[in-house]
């Protein structure tokens, strides 16, 4: 998270890979899981803690957030649960105030929340569109407003926003509001990166492909209508050049890389974690 001077400038010998977050505080918005198991936010939270970070485990689902915090503490890591809706202004202000009170400044914002609803223009109500936009995009504005002043004051910071390959491609079924908002997340993050690069703040988007998280049991099966969950899982895996869905850990490791000084010269870009699917013709 260094600003103007190259981290290894003048180094007498090649630097070691600085995959380390010791002394950093990471705010993970959406650190629970839609169902029991390893979501991207949960795996990322544990990964940040393993690299030495203090983790603000933030979710509107208190029990799920507590589970993530307990997993981190069970490994000897440092985490605290903060409960609220990241799409609601008062909650966002309170969540960041509580996080600052507990850990001091936030060094890394990992914006993980994402909701969606299957359907194209005729199946998507304006109210649903507004809600999905509020949770997926407007919340990123609110969270950025909370972290940027402190990051600028300290001349360093990192923002990791989670998009989706649905924000870049049509995935074979209508998922309009989700896809549009995930595209907006990418461009929001690019804009933020350009404006705040002179202040030492880096901002990048991680773009997961078809990931095997607990939420696919509750939502994705319905997109492959008329099929069982196992059939839906197999259909997803078959689309991927690497022949399988990704794991939450494989996304989490990309996030940890971007949050750390190992990515000190990377800002304003997208790291696609998709087993090759966005490069496919069909
Ligand atoms: N699973 C996939 O295949 C996949 C693929 C591409 C992108 N993504 C994206 O990755 C992210 C995480 O996906 P996941 O599958 O781990 O999801 P998940 O639904 O298991 O986890 C998201 C968490 O965010 C929380 N949350 C949702 N709205 C919130 C709000 N308004 N305020 C506070 N917390 C809120 C939920 O309670 C949940 O714990 C999402 O942004 C998703 O769109 C997932």
Instruction: Work out the helicity level.
Output: 40-55%
Instruction: Spell out the helices and strands N to C.
Output: EHEHEHEHEHEHHHE
DSSP, total strands: 7
Note poorly predicted spans: none
Description:
This protein is of the alpha/beta class and 282 residues long. It has a single domain, classed as Rossmann fold. Helices cover 43% and strands 14% of the residues. It is built from 8 helices and 7 strands; from the N terminus they run E-H-E-H-E-H-E-H-E-H-E-H-H-H-E. Helix 1 links the parallel strand 1 and strand 2. Helix 1 crosses helix 8. It starts with 24 loop residues before the first strand and ends in a 9-residue tail after the last strand.
Offer a few descriptive terms.
282 residues; 7 strands; alpha/beta; 43% helix; binds nicotinamide-adenine-dinucleotide; single chain; Rossmann fold; seven-stranded parallel sheet; 14% strand
Provide the fold topology:
Blueprint: E1 25-29, H1 40-50, E2 54-59, H2 62-74, E3 78-83, H3 89-103, E4 108-111, H4 126-154, E5 157-162, H5 176-196, E6 201-208, H6 215-223, H7 229-238, H8 248-259, E7 270-273
Parallel strand pairs: 1-2, 1-4, 2-3, 4-5, 5-6, 6-7
The structure holds nicotinamide-adenine-dinucleotide (NAD).
Compact description:
The protein has helices spanning 40-50, 62-74, 89-103, 126-154, 176-196, 215-223, 229-238, 248-259, and strands spanning 25-29, 54-59, 78-83, 108-111, 157-162, 201-208, 270-273. With 282 residues, it is an alpha/beta fold. A seven-stranded parallel β-sheet has the order 3-2-1-4-5-6-7, sandwiched between helices.
């Amino acid at each position: 998270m260094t600003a103007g001077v190259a981290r290894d400038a003048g180094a007498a010998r090649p630097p070691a890979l600085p995959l380390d977050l010791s002394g950093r505080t990471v705010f993970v918005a959406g650190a629970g899981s839609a169902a029991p198991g390893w979501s991207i936010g949960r795996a990322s939270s544990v990964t940040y803690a393993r690299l030495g970070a203090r983790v603000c485990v933030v979710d509107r689902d208190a029990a799920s957030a507590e589970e993530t915090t307990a997993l981190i503490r069970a490994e000897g890591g440092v985490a605290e649960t903060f409960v609220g809706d990241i799409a609601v202004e008062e909650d966002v202000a309170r969540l960041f105030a509580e996080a600052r009170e507990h850990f001091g400044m936030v060094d890394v914002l990992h914006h993980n929340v994402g909701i969606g609803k299957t359907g194209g223009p005729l199946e998507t109500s304006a109210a649903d569109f507004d809600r999905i936009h509020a949770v997926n995009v407007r919340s990123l504005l609110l969270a950025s407003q909370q972290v940027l002043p402190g990051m600028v004051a300290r001349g360093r910071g990192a923002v990791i926003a989670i998009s989706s390959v649905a924000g870049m491609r049509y995935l074979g079924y209508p998922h309009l509001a989700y896809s549009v908002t995930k595209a907006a997340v990418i461009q929001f993050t690019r804009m933020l990166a350009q404006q705040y690069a002179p202040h030492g703040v880096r901002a990048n988007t991680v773009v997961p492909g078809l990931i095997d998280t607990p939420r696919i049991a509750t939502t994705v099966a319905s997109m492959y209508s008329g099929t069982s969950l196992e059939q839906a899982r197999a259909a997803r895996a078959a689309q991927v050049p690497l022949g399988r869905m990704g794991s939450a850990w494989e996304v989490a490791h990309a996030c940890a890389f971007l949050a750390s000084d190992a990515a000190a010269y990377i800002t304003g870009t997208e790291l696609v974690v998709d087993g090759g699917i966005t490069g496919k013709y069909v």
